[in-house]
Amino acid sequence: MEKKRFHIKRKPISFINVFLLSTVCLALTSCSRQEDNPPTELTFIHGWGGAVKTHVLMQEIYDEFAEENPDIVLNSQPSSDSTIAVEKANDMLALDEMPNIVSTNGQSYYVSNVVKQGKALNLAPYIEEDPELKASIHPSVLEVWTNEDGSIYTLPDALEVMGYWYNKQYFTEAGIVDERGKASPPATWDEFYEACEKLEQWNQKTGTLKGVYALENVQVAENLFLARLAGESEEGYQMAGGVPDTFDHEAFRNTVKDFSNLYRYSSDTDSIDNARQYFIEGKTAMYFNGVWESEIFQDSKNREDIACADYPTRSGESLSYISPSSGYVVYDSPDKKQNEASVRFLKYMLGSGVQTRLALETGQAPSNPDVDNQVIAKGYPMLGNALKTAHDAQIQIKTISSVWSNSHLNLFAGHLKAASGNEDELNDLILQLDSLQKGDEKEINSSY
Fold first, then answer.
1. What is the spatial distance between Cα 366 and Cα 349, in angstroms, rounded to a whole number?
2. How far apart (Å, rounded) are the C-alpha atoms in residues 88 and 78?
3. What is the pLDDT of residues 271-307, one digit of tens each?
4. How many angstroms separate the CA atoms of 20 and 13, rounded?
């Protein structure tokens, strides 16, 4: 008997079905790949969490990094300022914890603490392997932050560039002018005090000023002192380059004593915010701080009268601060992908595009040497002129936080005013500073 054969009718597979099947397969493959290669997560602590214009811009720049690098998740933990942010990171360090990236923004003590605990990533190998990254780092950064063994543990995205600010109109009206009748900042410290006298005499007639300037400890300790010391003599210049074996030198004594003269022309104030506001309102003729203040000054009613000058010296040479403060610190994670992602973030922040934005939109001095100052001067004349003035100075020094320890700075800042007018206080200050050099370093309670 013949067996019946059953024929199964096969429906033709449509193009749509093939397409849908392929799409599902691709999606499954993609999901599988994402599971195999999840994004690298980084924890980032910084002090740009406020609502002011500069803080908002920095947050935007950080967010744009995340958008441009979808394989990296940047978990930011912002604080309202860098002091709070670094204190938070330092508290974590005490618990043997560290985020992947910390923006110290000049709080260099954290760098020292992380290095001592062996948690900081040595950035030197990454810099040497990447010519583009190396080219984006200012030579002064490498000079200051390269250790004897060649290691580098921090990179800043901006330089600290400082002269001082003055009111051109007040200088002109007080007769502090050149042969053409234009405002002319003093070249020597003797001329500086002559200018202060002229401003006081002018003020007696006009009643315009609260004081020639308004000093508080930030301006005195961080901005004025090393400029005055380095401009005193060659000995003073050497002391300004690093902590000396002893502070009992003529240059140091003369500089401290000379602050009694500087205080004579000052209107006392308890904060740098008040000192800045006096200058903006035209109640003082000078203000001692960095080029970043241009971000605030450009919106003031006196902006056309505000200019930046280099510091005077005994010899008449011009002097400015061109200094790389501590910047980003990276955790040496066991996860090498995290380290590589962190370095990619640093490279992004040092790129010419971001660096130009930082200059034009926040008033910060670029750390990348390839950023064109002419572009800055065209888009932001006040900052561009201030940068040119500082970079053209005949003598350039580092900030005190870059060359002296925090213990030295805190001790010195809390006692300078008393020591400037009293020989016994000065001798005691020198003894205490020298004791730190003899290994008797301890925590100093600062009134600064």
1. 10
2. 10
3. 999 999 999 999 999 999 999 999 999 989 999 999 9
4. 11
DSSP codes of every residue in 357-384: HHHHHH-PEESSTTS-HHHHHHH-HHHH
Query: Cα 160 to the chain's mean position, in Å?
Result: 5
Q: Which two tokens stand for residue 227?
A: 């400029």
- The C-alpha torsion from 293 through 87 and 80 to 277, rounded to 10°, is -30
Whether residue 420 is predicted with pLDDT greater than 50 in this model: the reply is yes
> Which residues on adjacent β-strands are paired with residue 183?
177
Shortest CA distance to 165 belongs to which of 280, 256, 52, 44? 280
Q: How confident is the model at residue 347 (pLDDT cuts 50, 70, 90)?
A: very high
pLDDT tens-digit map of 1-47: 444 444 444 445 454 454 445 554 455 454 444 456 899 999 999 99
* Spatial distance between the Cα atoms of 359 and 143, rounded to a whole number of angstroms: 23
Average pLDDT, the chain: 90
Please give the Cα distance from 448 to 425 (Å, whole number).
Answer: 17
* Token representation of residue 369: 């040497």
Q: Who's near 211: CB < 8 A, 6+ residues apart?
A: 265, 266, 267, 278, 283, 284
Q: Which two tokens stand for residue 43?
A: 């924890």
Q: Which of 226, 393, 213, 416 is nearest to 320 (CA)?
A: 393
Phi, psi of 241 (to 5 degrees): -90, -5
**Mean pLDDT calculated for residue range 74-98:** 94
- Do 255 and 225 form a contact (C-beta atoms < 8 A)? yes
The CATH code for residues 40-161+324-384 is: 3.40.190.10
Find residue 44's DSSP bridge partners.
76, 101
CATH 3.40.190.10 domain span(s) along the chain: 40-161+324-384, 162-322+400-437
Contacts for 253 with CB less than 8 Å, ≥ 6 apart: 426, 430
Residue reference for tokens 């740098």: 272
CATH number of the domain located at residue range(s) 162-322+400-437 in this protein: 3.40.190.10
Cα end-to-end span (Å), the chain = 112
Place 443 in a pLDDT band, splitting at 50, 70 and 90. Answer: very low
- 77, β-bridge pairs: 45
**Coil, strand or helix: which one is 409?**
helix
